Amino acid sequence: xxxxxxxxxxxxPGHAAHAAGRGPSASSTPATAxxxxxxxxxxxxxxxxxxxxxxxxxxxxxxxxxxxxxxxxGSDLGIRPDSGFALVAVGGLGRREMLPHSDLDLILLxxxxxxxxxxxVADRLWYPLWDAHIRLxxxxxxxxxxxxxxxxxxxxxxxxxxxxxxxxxxxxxxxLIGGVRRQWRTGIRNRFDELIEMTEARWERSGQIAHxxxxxxxxxxxxxxDVQLLNALSVAQLTDGMPGLGPDAPGGGLAAAHRHxxxxxxxxxRVAGRGRDQLQAQDADEIGAALRIGDRxxxxxxxxxxxxTISYSVEVGxxxxxxxxxxxxxxxxxxxPVRHPLDEGxxxxxxxxxxxxxxxxxxxxxxxxxxxxxAARSGLPISAATLTRLSDHAPELREPWPRQxxxxxxxxxxxxxxxxxxxxxLDRTGLWGxxxxxxxxxxxxxxRDAVHTWTVDRHLVETAVHASALTTRVxxxxxxxxxxxxxxxxxxxxxxxxVVGAEVADQIGTRMGxxxxxxxxxxxxxxxxxxxxxxxxxxxxxxxxxxxxxxxxLGGDPLLLELLHALAEAxxxxxxxxxxxxxxASLIRELxxxxxxxxxxxDLPAPAPIDPELAxxxxxxxxxxxxxxxxxxxxxxxxxxxPDEPGVLSDTAGVLALHGLRxxxxxxxxxxxxxxxxxxxxxxxxxPPAAGLLRQxxxxxxxxxxxxxxxxxAKDRAARESAPSARPERAVPGxxxxxxxxxxxxxxxxxxxxxxxxxxEDRVGMLCRLAGVFEDLxxxxxWATVTTIGSTVVDxxxxxxxTAGTRASRERLEQALLAVLPTPEPKNPPTAS
Length: 833
Hints:
- Helix content is about 50%, strand content about 10%.
- It is built from 32 helices and 15 strands.
- This is Bifunctional uridylyltransferase/uridylyl-removing enzyme.
């Protein structure tokens, strides 16, 4: 047995490993490459006197084993501190992550030594390893040659960033390791785009670990290669290597996720008996049992959690690195990013959602929801620093939640695909679980049947995404979105998930502050979310007992039927390809139609009664404009009493929008020749304007001195120009129109009136624009009720039939209204053939 020329720092398994009880005894230290292979196999199989090592101990023992053998063999070959040779490990051995059947990646460095001598040393080192059937990836270079390779070959450069000295001339190894790292730091600006393109191509080839039945643990998205990418960005001093996910994050953070993947891949090598990166279904139970995780479902959940943690970390790391790239030339002279307000205490900064300088997370419980809603509306990611600050300082929301916090959650859910990344960011950093503690039971929970594409938690979010496109089909879009988010919340708890889920949804809805009637609808949605698809596809719809059974189960509630119809579609679309089709849609549609015929008709919209004090002002002919705080603390009440003339409604709504007051609800009516309009408004930022200013602006608008639509358009243009990160085609920076607008004509009992209900996504100045259309076309609005639910408006206008009674007049009115309503962008724009 040869001595170790480097002393205690590189002790072999006969020293440190044996002392730790991890490896063979000193007397069994391998003397030849064949002995090395046999010793490795003994460690992996735990044969003979060697007890079975856990995965971390096995990796450590393998590193010790190969380090010791290479050190001693190198010494025999003349690879000593003063020899002009150095042996450097890259890959798994370089990272000290040697797996049972990993390749051995080595670089033999020399200091311009005679080629024949170099060739002789290399052959005597490589050939015994090949003969022992140890997979070897090798190269022989001088330091300048190695640096030249690293400068032109990105994969080689990434490998050398993990280089570690094994034997020989330490200074020679240091020249390579330090040179590669300096070269990487100074050249990262020119190589960053290539690095990201290479990474994305790898993801495209290997898919996502979190959502694959047989994932590639090394190259898949969220895999071990991504951890190495983060390390490379850290070496370039563009990230801190652990972007915001420490041990307190769900699942233990990035370090724990990395360790879990290493453990599974180590056991995969042991089970397969060879180097393999793809986890096959038939091996999952054995690996899960060996790691004491459980069955294949438990293993899948662990892998999903780890992969999503790593994937999120890479997303943050790449974004942070891109923002940190050094500038060149004249770009160095440009001003830094400017902060643009998005909401109270929330700004856009450098293409990310961040906290305003004066934001105080510890004193603002609703800030988490507000940040999430702003990110979803703007389509911008939340900065890692903001998430960390919120995680460290934001308090729990009081119970019941403030109304604005619930509204912000609805805005988030209504944002469509943008909600996925926002929820993922909140969940990976522990903030989503703070809002919904019950989420832990479904987080990363794998589906029990192959038809489901997503984990249960992701399926819930995807269902909300699909439901966001259906919000204008229902009268209560908020309940639809909440039902979509919670319909499978009972899974992972044992028992019937619909029954259990209804109880959990009741707890969540109570905490959110839902009205008792709304809470009853939400829990019924969760309890019966499978009723329509199961009945429509499994029972005879021509049997009256089938329809009666559904109606009785729903208590004859047409609202619940409407919501369950939309939820069934969203749930099916979010399940997987082919689950929702015309056959299933037509069956459910027919079942719903027959149920509606059996149920009592829904109540028509009706005007709200006029407050007696305001009625007296109208009778006196007094013009009145006021803005008062509401008793419940939820915003302000804006009241306008003025002569009933064309343009009053659009002018009033325009003045409110111009001064940053968002209309939550409104009651529009007339009395004694005056219009009496009452609005519940919430300031978009800061404190509201003084009532005197609103009155002054209203007078200017009525006199024609203030063009409100022009002012609103100018405000929108300014917002676009000051926010370069926003998409230029938007009226204001933000995400709009997941659901198409819908216009519904409803006949009333009064033969002289018809009600037009407008359902659409909200935008700045919406009511002003709608009222302007009615006024331009001479449609007399008798009364109106306005409601904003999250990011959706449900507005009912009672119109005089004399101005909207014919088919042609209705079509003109509909076309004009649709022209000012946000409409969805095409999901699949046509491409040139």
